Amino acid sequence: MPSTVDHAIMEVLVGTYGKTFHTWRYDQGNSSIPLGIPEIVVGYTGNSQITPDFVTKRDALFGVNTTTIRESRADIVAPKVIDGADSWKNGYVLTLELRNTTMNTTFG
Length: 108
Fold this sequence. Notes:
By secondary structure, this protein is α+β, with helices and mostly antiparallel strands. The chain has a domain at 3-47 and 76-90. The chain contains 3 helices and 2 strands; from the N terminus they run αββαα. The protein has a two-stranded antiparallel ribbon with strand order 1-2. The protein starts with a helix and ends in a 36-residue tail after the last helix.
């Protein structure tokens, strides 16, 4: 992707705090349709969250240079983390569940 497009996207995404819901199990090898209970996942947002060896292997696999990308995004300012956004650090974790419920499905 062109660096100007990457930069514009990252200026927007930096405020999302790296969280998204996935409705498919990427580890099950079926990416053709959404399956399963939605799971909230986070993106790596700090340099210490993955090992340098992992970054080197990822860069080689995708043909990118993390150092160059990081430098091109250096002027993007991340907003302050909102209190409670890291509730999992304090042992408070939200989960989703699949529940079978009988309901009236008559539409008026």
